[in-house]
Amino acid sequence: MNLTPELKTQIDGMSIMTLLSKIRFSPCGDPLFQDESGDYCMKRYAELRDKNPDEHVAASKTLGWEQ
Asked: Is the pTM value of this prediction over 0.85?
């Protein structure tokens, strides 16, 4: 998916919990994780994870692996 300014703003507004949830539970082939938008999502996720590792661990434990 092309990374439009609107989509970039939407991704930038997502919390680590929201991004991690989408990464774990979105169906395979979700357009959000394709092409430019996918690259940006994962970059943004890594930034948030590295900025506050404790928050990332807490979000991961809260979400688990089964939905």
From this structure: yes
